[in-house]
Every structure is written in structure tokens, then in C-alpha cells.
Amino acid sequence: MSALLDGVYDGEMTIGELLGHGNFGLGTFDGLDGEMVILDGVCWQLRSDGTATRADLDARTPFAVVTNFVPHITAKAPDNLARKDVSAFIDSLIHSQNYMYALRITGDFADVTTRTVVKQEKPYPKMVEATQSDAVVHMDHVSGTIAGFRTPVYEQGISVPGCHVHFIDAGCTHGGHVLDFSLLSGTIELCVGTDLQLRLPLTDEFSRAELAPDDLQQQIETTE
Ligand SMILES: [Zn+2]
Q1: Is the pLDDT of residue 173 over 90?
Q2: In this structure, which of 20, 39, 42, 143 has its CB flanked by the most CB atoms within 10 Å?
């Protein structure tokens, strides 16, 4: 995540290889060419016009988080659950905040607001600059799935602390990085993570990147 902030937008891992590490997750594509969501082993590319298409297995990613999703905890969501109340609801379901949790919310939404990064051209700007052109899409009365992770604060810099989730509609035609939502009714599933495997690219850009800026937390809050 720190490398993305520093403008390292090209990775080495292909989507085909990534899917070998997990059937569920999120991320982005080389050049920030859209948001990624992986559900049931299918990788979807969510572009800045809000559309979703199946990602090319030969495409590459500079940042992705994946796991093999096993719903250890399943709960019916409280009716009319707003995004701001999700964290407290998750806290009521889990026994510790010190683990990683993959999170899947499936149901009918009153509204979902997403944003999607716009493909960047070299020389790449830093992410605080790149995300200023993000396209925001608003969907009303939509069924679909929110997928992502609740990450402990101690993983700051490796990943995005707190809830980082992406949305795709039930027809797999639209989606993006979730800014806000209101869930009319649905199901929340959590998969507890105790193992973290980190793969770093052996690129010149990554090896020269500034990965521990003083304002790391602020940059993550601005961009995510
Ligand atoms: Zn995102």
C-alpha cells in the first residue's frame, strides 16, 4: 500500500497467479486501471465509468489482497445498516480486533456510492494526486456484494487499516471502491485470517520507493 502511495503502479504478479493464492479479494491493476474485486474465484475489473468486466488473466497488479474465503461467522445484518455502523456490528460478532477479517456483505442496498481510480500514464503522479480525478458513481436500489477486508491498524502501510471494501452488483455489470452505502437487508459473513504472506515486486520502482513517509496515515486516509 505504501508503494502505491508513492506512485508505484506497476507490479509483477499476473491475475492468473494471484487467483492461485485466493478466490476472494480486492486490489487494483497496473497503471491504476480500475478497481479489482475477486468473488468465487473470478476477478472483476471495475473501471472509472462504473462498468465491470472479467479481468484478463495476463493483466498484472501492483496491489491486491486475497484469501480463500471460508465464512467462519455468518449473521443477518440489522435492517437499514449504514456504512458508519458496520464496524460496530462487526465488533459485536468477533472476539478480537487483532486478527485480519475478510468481509462479505450480500443483499439489497438502498444506495451504494463508489469511486474508481482513473488509469494513469507515466510518469506516474503520487496517489494523493492520482486519486483527485477519481470517478464517483451513485447507485440506488441495487442488489449485490460488498467484498473486502477489516485490517488491524498494525498493518498500516502493508495494507489499508480498517474496512476497505469494493462493491459489485448482482449482475456483475457495475461496481467500484465503496465510499458509502445503506444496506436494506442482507447477510454479513466474516472469515478470520491468522496468516499473512507478503509478496513484493523485484522492480526498480519498488526498490527505490519511499515506503515510510512521515504522513503515511494521512495519505492513506486521503486516498482510501
Ligand atoms: Zn479500494
Answers
A1: yes
A2: 39
